[in-house]
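INFO  loader      accepted 1 record
INFO  loader      residues=180
INFO  predictor   begin
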Amino acid sequence: MARKDWKERAKKVRLLLLDVDGVMTDGRLGFDGEGREFKFFYARDGIGIKLLQQAGVRVGILSGRRAKVVTLRAKELGISLVRQKIQDKSRALDEILAAEKLRPEQVCYMGDDLVDLPVLRRVGLAVAVADAVAEVKSVAHLVTQTPGGRGAVREVCEKILKIQGKWGKGTRKFFSSPGG
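INFO  predictor   done
INFO  writer      dumping tokens
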């Protein structure tokens, strides 16, 4: 599902902000016998993030929970804008906008649950993953075809790159024949 104006909104995106549980992951929380948390991240989402970054679009994480594995994944992907254990995501958005010198319409936020609603209502491009709760889908400009943790982030990265005319440049090296 997409609203008519989502493409115009995507053209303005300079920052993709991601929730973690239910967006970057499938939302399940796992713990080992020692109480250490583990999460599963989808490799293709990571490639999408890297392509977006290479095209000059910043990527950040805005999560209500804190997990060491999120810090590790962010570092692996070169994401320096990481806010965890956030109680008020709307206030965190204000801080990020000020620090990054951005306007709300230049931000795309991906969410899946009720805690994401305050941010989704304020950003230029609000995205709900396919398996988001109904309330989140109802305010989204775009709902992905793929569920959280299974390619939704990659789907949005590709859409932004294509709408901004940056897909071909960033991916050309993958399609060229061997030897040039």
